[in-house]
Amino acid sequence: MISATEITKKYGDKQVLNIEEITIPSGQSFGLVGNNGAGKTTFFNLILDLIQPTTGKIKNKEVDVRHNEDWKNFTSAYLDESFLIGYLKPEEYFEFIAKLRNVNDADLQNALMQYEELFNGEILGQKKFLRDLSKGNQKKVGIVGALIGQPEVIVLDEPFANLDPTTQIKLKKLLKELNQTTNSTLLISSHDLGHITEVCDRIVVLEKGEVTKDLKTSEETLKELEIFFSS
Ligand SMILES: Nc1ncnc2c1ncn2[C@@H]1O[C@H](COP(=O)(O)OP(=O)(O)OP(=O)(O)O)[C@@H](O)[C@H]1O
Q: How far is Cα 226 from Cα 20, in angstroms, rounded to an integer?
């Protein structure tokens, strides 16, 4: 379970986040939506202790992320390309992550086979450094890197952005399967209301840093969000 309690984040005089309470139970696939600048990446950065809140506390499985690093043993994330290591080839990057998460080579190779369809022949065996891959292919590497070893908590910031439509559909299928077949807690942000309502059990809407909707996903959710964002 992840809990964010009385979180505010200010830059100078500008308050960019003001969250009274968000609790994300284990195994939930949690979707975060909101217009540009709403505070989605800020929220994920706080969960990953990449920035500090102005007030409030974030706990990841009872670990206060600001004061104890144990959450790193069961949490992975891909927010942007700064999570990659540009001078490694994809295989080297995956091996590096596998070592970090105590995944042996046989298990890593098995896991990578699962992602062959997503890779579409453009990632493995190409002898290219990560820095030389296209933005979309870099993103595929980053997302798969976050999934290696099936961490208990996986945070993905706009995973569908920059991916071609075929890959978006494959990724959606993969994330839905992950949600159904494991107890991993999945936190995803997206501007694609269709994708996020398909993948996530719950959708939280942020508006100017505040939670304005918290919905259990149902058949009506997509329509409700479309109406909300068009008004
Ligand atoms: N280092 C910073 N200094 C000042 N303001 C910042 C900083 N980082 C973020 N902000 C501001 O915080 C607000 C929230 O930004 P954030 O990136 O979290 O939004 P977002 O919902 O992820 O947006 P987008 O959909 O455009 O990616 C924005 O107004 C942004 O300009």
A: 25
Q: Is the pLDDT of residue 94 over 90?
A: yes
CB 43 within 8 A of CB 211: no
Do 188 and 161 form a contact (C-beta atoms < 8 A)? no
Question: Residue 61 — φ and ψ, nearest 5°?
Answer: 50, 50
pLDDT at 231 over 90: no
> Which alpha helices (DSSP H) does the chain contain, by range?
40-47, 90-100, 105-114, 116-119, 135-147, 165-181, 193-199, 221-230
- For residue 148, the number of C-alpha atoms closer than 13 Å in the C-beta half-sphere is 29
Assess whether the C-beta atom of 34 lies below 6 angstroms from ligand 1: yes
CATH number at residue 218: 3.40.50.300
Cα-atom radius of gyration of the chain, to the nearest Å? 17
Q: Determine the distance separating the centroid of ligand 1 and the alpha carbon of 16, expressed in angstroms.
A: 7
Whether the CB of 36 sits within 6 Å of ligand 1: yes
Q: What is the pTM of this model?
A: 0.96
- Asked if residue 11 and residue 39 are part of one domain, the reply reads yes
Is residue 52 in contact with ligand 1, taking CB distance under 6 Å? no
Last residue of a domain, one of 151, 167, 197: 151
Atom of ligand 1 nearest to the CA of 9: 12
